[in-house]
Specification:
single chain; about 400 residues; Heat Shock Protein 90; Helix Hairpins; 3 domains; five-stranded mixed β-sheet; 10 helices; elongated
Length: about 400
């Protein structure tokens, strides 16, 4: 059927719409007044009968082409559990009004079909039918109820489109996450082998020229960078799938921070490190994951600040029963726009895209790890002055 009119049958007010719309369509087709009335009455009687039993019937009115002829057609679908009896006089009366009447019962619903053949003299064609459809699509509401119903229908359509858009976006994200996971696993093995061979070559007792030793050192350095990126991709895949695992245990925070700072002093030898801790406290953490957090925050502090500048690590107790760890640099700082997005997945500020490498994964993973530790993470920054990354961790209570 070429659908022209569709009406949900919810209450008696819809009977008015069903009658007027079916009359209007028959009139626009050029049918006689008697035929218009007959068709509209049959539609109204079936609509009334269905409404008496349920509030989720659907009326559709349109045209059906059978070779060179067209028929005016109306269908009413409703719950398949409904059975009409002799008390449903309208159902039996409608059958007498139209030449073709059929009731089909399916697993999904019951469907009533009513048809009236149209004379060839109307000279219907696809162009005329499209004009007819557009007219009814743009038709003004018949009454206040119809206006409200049309608005609700539009809102429902918008909501449906939004839901469909979200479903498709979710599907794309799932496929992307699956690809990232597979690609990362495939990359990790050859990269691990490459690094192993490089370290073996660097450790050989055979004579090696200084130039070759320097090249092996560079290969090893770049291998470490690639392995870090692969591991970050794997972590994002685990985060998206809810599979990021933690082994939590109580740890003395100050000792833990000192260990990480000592490691980073070797990685960032051209920066000065300063520490200022509050009284030592116990925190419940996964040490490997928290090492990842500090390596990323301290690494970024060095990456985005000049050599010979200071990186400070500070802690303080908050009023909420938590300890706050702050990483402070004297680097380039951030704009307000960057601060609102810096923890988003794959986000990279425009002013560092060309000057600094990266995929924008580190801070996203860091924020997820802190959140999973029941903590919070935030940043305070001023352009050209520096940044202060802070995260909180709940204290272990006896």
């Amino acid at each position: 059927m070429i659908n022209v009119v569709s009406i949900s049958l919810e209450n008696e007010m819809d009977l008015v719409l069903a009658h007027k719309r079916s009359m209007k369509l028959a009139e626009r087709l050029g049918l006689s007044t008697a035929t218009q009335t007959t068709f509209a009455t049959a539609v109204s009687e079936i609509a009334r009968t269905v409404i008496e039993h349920t509030d989720d019937g659907i009326l559709e009115i349109g045209l059906e082409q059978n070779q060179t002829r067209y028929s005016l057609m109306a269908t009413v679908s409703y719950d398949n559990s409904i059975r009409f009896t002799n008390n449903d006089a309208g159902f039996y009366y409608a059958q007498k009004l139209v030449p073709e009447f059929d009731l089909t019962e399916t697993v999904d619903c019951n469907l009533i079909v009513m048809k009236i053949g149209l004379p060839r003299s109307l000279k219907l064609d696809p162009v005329k039918i499209n004009i007819l459809k557009k007219e009814f699509a743009n038709e003004q509401p018949i009454n206040a109820y119809d206006e409200i119903k049309q608005r609700n229908a539009r809102l429902s359509q918008i909501a449906h489109e939004k839901d469909e858009e979200l479903r498709r976006t979710k599907l794309v994200d799932e496929k992307k996450t699956e690809f990232i996971s597979i690609a990362s696993h495939e990359l990790k093995t050859p990269m691990t082998v490459l690094k192993a061979y490089t370290q073996m070559a660097r450790g050989t007792k055979e004579p090696v020229s200084d130039q070759l030793r320097e090249l092996l050192s560079k290969i090893d350095f770049q291998s470490n960078k690639l392995l870090t990126l692969v591991q970050q991709l794997l972590d994002i895949s685990k985060i998206e799938n809810g599979n990021l695992q933690y082994h939590l245990q109580p740890v003395k925070l100050n000792d833990f921070l000192n260990q990480q700072v000592e490691v980073m002093k070797h990685i960032l030898p051209h920066h000065e490190f300063s520490i200022n801790y509050c009284n030592d406290v116990d925190v419940l953490i996964d040490e490997l994951r928290m090492e990842q957090v500090l390596a990323n925050l301290l690494g970024n502090a060095g990456k985005y600040s000049d050599k010979q500048t200071k990186i400070s690590v500070e802690t303080m107790l908050s009023d909420e029963g938590a300890v706050v760890v702050s990483i402070i640099d004297q680097g380039r700082g951030m704009t307000a726009e960057t601060m609102t997005s810096v923890f988003d997945k794959f986000y990279r500020a425009k002013d560092v895209l060309k000057s600094h490498t990266g995929l924008g994964m580190g801070l996203y993973i860091t924020s997820k790890i802190i959140t999973d530790h029941q903590g919070k993470i935030w940043v305070e920054s001023e352009k050209g002055v520096g940044s202060k990354f802070c995260f909180s961790l709940p204290l272990v209570t006896n």
